[in-house]
TrEMBL record:
InterPro entries hit by this protein: Gfo/Idh/MocA-like_OxRdtase_C, Gfo/Idh/MocA-like_OxRdtase_N, NAD(P)-bd_dom_sf
Entries under Gene3D superfamilies matching the protein: Dihydrodipicolinate Reductase, domain 2 (3.30.360.10), NAD(P)-binding Rossmann-like Domain (3.40.50.720)
GO MF assignments: nucleotide binding; oxidoreductase activity
Name the record gives this protein: YMR315W-like protein
Residue ranges annotated for the Gfo/Idh/MocA-like oxidoreductase C-terminal domain, each copy included: 139-345
Pfam families, A to Z: GFO_IDH_MocA (PF01408), GFO_IDH_MocA_C (PF02894)
One Gene Ontology term from the biological process aspect of the record: NADPH regeneration
Lineage, highest ranks first: Eukaryota, Fungi, Dikarya, Ascomycota, Saccharomycotina
GO cellular component: cytoplasm
Domain Gfo/Idh/MocA-like oxidoreductase N-terminal: 4-125
Amino acid sequence: MSPLNVGIVGTGIFARDRHLPSYQEFPDKFKVAAAFNRHKEKALDFAKTANIPENKVYDNLEEILKDPHVDYIDALLPAQFNADIVEKAVKAGKPVILEKPIAANLDQAREIVELAESTPLPVGVAENWLYLPCIKIAKEQIKKIGPVVAFTHNSTGPFVTQNKYLTTTWRQKPEHIGGFLSDGGVHQLALVISLLGEFGSVSALTRQVRERSGADDIVFATVQLKDAEVIGSFTYGSAFGATEKSVFLKVYGKNGTVTVDLSDKKNPVVKVKLGGSAEDNGDEQTFKVDNDESFGVNAEFLNFHEAVSKKDKSLYLGSPRTAFHHLACVDAFLKSSAKNGDHVKVEQP
Ligand SMILES: NC(=O)c1ccc[n+]([C@@H]2O[C@H](COP(=O)([O-])OP(=O)(O)OC[C@H]3O[C@@H](n4cnc5c(N)ncnc54)[C@H](OP(=O)(O)O)[C@@H]3O)[C@@H](O)[C@H]2O)c1
């Protein structure tokens, strides 16, 4: 089968630094074949790097959607534009994969879920953390410590003043709810929810630590899962002063503990301790996880390829319904914090 021709919409930082290299790793599966960006000179520059001919750099969205050689659209835009792109892509009969978060707010996210569920075309959200290799290993181990009763998720780190993403104006003045809390937080939520299940309700406090974040940038929450008696805590923020990066999920069962530690991005580990009590305390086992430079993006693209080429949208893991839930958790954190930590139910699509 010849490679799928990808039309990139939004040729910014992540298109250049991650999507393009990931596509280029699989030349038999993908060809980055066309591009559109609102400032055309940036798309032309991207096209040079990606080997896209100039006549495939389009002046507007309608033209790239009309190109019969483009097999699907890969959109990397500020989240408030996602609903519009999905509507137009579905009308044009093109599958579309959107960068996370699914949308800027729950109303737009609901529109996307409805559009996606009303078409046989694959409409996916690029939630690369759904594809982290640690998830498969941790899932196997979590089965051994059951029943699970509680969890602690912590993702904290220092504010990085030279962060390339901070320079983007749409992040400095976010239209997407929670700013960095939804921009980065949906990743953490994807990990926790993949392993433990959906959040039912939350009690949270959020704060803005850095003016440059544009909105609240830290959250400390307690959580009750939807379909179980499991309770836990969810902490997220990279706006602190000097501190080590600490990213881990610790899952407590009646028969042991599983810890997923992603603090060292290049050396993720899953640790397991089996036993039902202090007296029955087994040795800790450590499972090394393969280092995935793409942090799940390669696997996510291969999964989307499968859904598009087999014309079966159900094969793709990052469905709009799944991504809706991640954004709905952020929405619930913010609503709870506005009520000084009252318990708030996570909304459904
Ligand atoms: N999965 C991950 O780990 C990850 C990491 C980073 C980013 N992302 C996602 O990737 C997407 C792009 O982020 P980025 O960091 O690459 O940001 P970026 O460099 O600012 O790229 C954003 C793109 O959207 C375009 N854009 C901005 N405002 C627009 C508007 N009003 N109308 C039309 N186009 C507009 C920009 O065009 P101009 O250049 O012409 O302004 C640019 O091409 C976002 O959805 C982000 O959440 C995901």
